[in-house]
Each structure stands twice: as structure tokens, then as C-alpha cells.
Amino acid sequence: MARSAIINVMVQAAMKAGRSLSRDFGEVQNLQVSLKGPGDYVSQADRRAEDIVFTELAKARPGYAFLMEERGVVDGDDDQHRWIVDPLDGTTNFLHGIPVFSISIALERQGQLVAGVVYNPIMDELYTAERGGGAFMNDRRLRVAARTKLSDAVIGCGIPHLGRGHHGNFLIELRNVMGEVAGVRRMGSAALDLAYVAAGRIDGYWETGLSAWDVAAGLLLVREAGGFASEPGGGQDMLESGDVVAGNEVIHRALVKTLSKPVASR
Ligand code: IPD
Ligand code: CA
Ligand code: CA
Ligand code: CA
């Protein structure tokens, strides 16, 4: 599979940051860790990976703007392009020695997602998508799962951490979903959750209260793998709201319906 120049730039940045994360993962007990808020950790590993992605992308495409989790907004001279980057998605897993985390890089052109890369350096799984060009894991073309019954479906979710809010809503949503599906999973990296939907490993996923950098690349992966994504109410402002439901067309519709039920009966 021949990759485009822009995907190559993103892959190179993600893999270089991945090598840094893999090294730091091996010495996780020696890393400096600080709290950004209750339950919300950041470490030297996040910052080192972000520095690498920032340097690589800025060198390859000078002037593009950035939105990055740790640096925030970096303005550019080019008002057409913006990188949206999470240098370590799954910090809590990482700091606990759980090898489920990723680097997420997306590119917007004129406000539209045009390229996305999600990389799990421990599994060496590289997910790429370009608008109109399909989604891939390493060199394999991806397609969302074909299951259409919720009762056969395994659904991913995110559980709001301490300080996040949304706890009450989440419990209502979980109870509704649990009552209808074959299984529920909590992976701990939103970017990988969406990549797993694209790969057909999970049939659907929902989470609320995320940020643009958690979901930008993954949303493109889902769409390019033939899937559907929206806010729980059906809107398309997922980058602003951080609220996401995804799956194939049928599971997506069914999940939206299930999530909006008031409270399931026992
Ligand atoms: C977190 C992960 C996690 C999700 C959290 C996010 P971080 O990102 O994506 O799966 O449930 O809400 O904040 O902080 O590890 O980059
Ligand atoms: Ca974080
Ligand atoms: Ca994240
Ligand atoms: Ca992060």
C-alpha cells in the first residue's frame, strides 16, 4: 500500500513518539508525574512524546496551526490547516503499566478532518486514514464489523474519572446499554476505542466529555472504514462537545436510541 506524503509525515511523527513512549513505559516508576486536576495525570512521557510530534510536524509543514493536549493552541501563519494531537492517549493505563495507550494525530483542512493516524507502539499497530482513501491497520484495509443486532454486539465505553462529572448520566447510559448488548468494554484510550470500531474489533462505542484531541483521528478512521459517528443526540459537533457514539450504520442508530432512553427497567 502506497501512503500519501501527508500520511507519511504523520506516521513518522507517531512512530518516533512511539519509540519515546516505549522507552518511558519500561521505566515508568522513574517518571515525574503531576496532577492537572482530580484523577487527571500528566507525566514526563506525555510531554516528551508531545515535543517529538510537535517538532516533526512543524519541520515537515511549517506554518500549520496546532491544538495539542499539553501545549494547547499554537497559532500558525497558515489559516487553512490545523494539527490536532494527543501525544499519549491513555495516560492512566500507561502510568499503571497497562500496555493499552496510543498517539493520536489528525489534520484538519479548512475545518474538515482530512487525515488521521493512531498508533499503539506496544502492539505496533498503526491505524491510518485519509478522507476518501479508506482506513488501514498497518497495510490491511479496515471495515467496521457487520453485526447488526445489539444483542450480539460488544460495545466500548469510557468511564468518567474522578473530577470529570457526568457520573450520574454515565450510570444511566451503562444500565441501558448493559441491558441490550453481549458485552461492554472499557479500554482506556478513546483514540484506540474508535480505531477498534474501525477495525471491527468492537461493534460500537460511546463516551462523553472528551476533547477534540481524543477523537479527531479516530472519527476519520471510523468513517473511512464505513462506520457512522455522531453525538448522542445525532449532531456532528463531536470535536466541540467531546460526546461521541460510533458503530456501523445499524449499531450506531440502535446505540443512539438506547442511550437516549430515560432509565432501563430492571
Ligand atoms: C483519556 C483517555 C480515556 C478517556 C478519558 C481521556 P488521556 O485521555 O482517552 O480513554 O476515557 O476521558 O481523558 O488523558 O489519557 O489522554
Ligand atoms: Ca490527559
Ligand atoms: Ca486523551
Ligand atoms: Ca493525552
- Helix/strand class: alpha+beta
- What's the CATH class of the largest domain, please? Alpha Beta
Task: State the order of secondary-structure elements, H for helix, E for strand.
Answer: HEEHEEEHEEEEEEHEHEHEHEH
Distance between the termini: 50 Å
CATH T-level fold name of the largest domain: Fructose-1,6-Bisphosphatase, Chain A, domain 1
Q: CATH superfamily name of the largest domain?
A: Fructose-1,6-Bisphosphatase, subunit A, domain 1
Detail the poorly predicted runs: none
Helix content: 25-40%
Q: What is the count of distinct domains?
A: 2
The gyration radius over C-alpha positions equals 18 Å
The shape is: globular
Percent of residues in β-strands: 25-35%
Strand segment count: 15
Main β-sheet: number of strands, strand sense, barrel status?
Answer: 8 strands, mixed
Distinct compounds present: D-MYO-inositol-1-phosphate, calcium ion
Family: Belongs to the inositol monophosphatase superfamily.
Enzyme class: hydrolase
GO molecular function: inositol monophosphate phosphatase activity
EC number: 3.1.3.25
Notes on the protein architecture:
This protein has 266 residues and is an alpha+beta fold. The chain has 2 domains: 5-141, 2-Layer Sandwich (Fructose-1,6-Bisphosphatase, Chain A, domain 1); 150-259, D-Maltodextrin-Binding Protein, domain 2, CATH 3.40.190.80. Helix content is 35%, strand content 29%. The chain has 8 helices and 15 strands. It has helices spanning 5-25, 44-60, 91-95, 167-178, 190-199, 212-224, 238-241, 249-259; strands at 33-37, 40-43, 64-68, 72-74, 78-89, 102-109, 112-120, 125-130, 134-137, 140-141, 154-157, 183-185, 204-207, 228-230, 244-247. Strands 4-3-5-6-7-8-9-10 form an 8-stranded mixed beta sheet, sandwiched between helices. A 5-stranded mixed beta sheet has the order 12-11-13-15-14, sandwiched between helices. A two-stranded antiparallel sheet has the order 1-2. Strand 1 (33-37) and strand 2 form a beta hairpin. Helix 1 packs antiparallel against helix 2 and helix 5 (190-199) runs parallel beside helix 6 (212-224). The protein is globular and about 50 Å long. The relative contact order is 0.13. The mean pLDDT is 96. Bound molecules: D-MYO-inositol-1-phosphate (IPD) and calcium ion (3 copies). The site of one calcium ion has 4 residues, from strand 5.
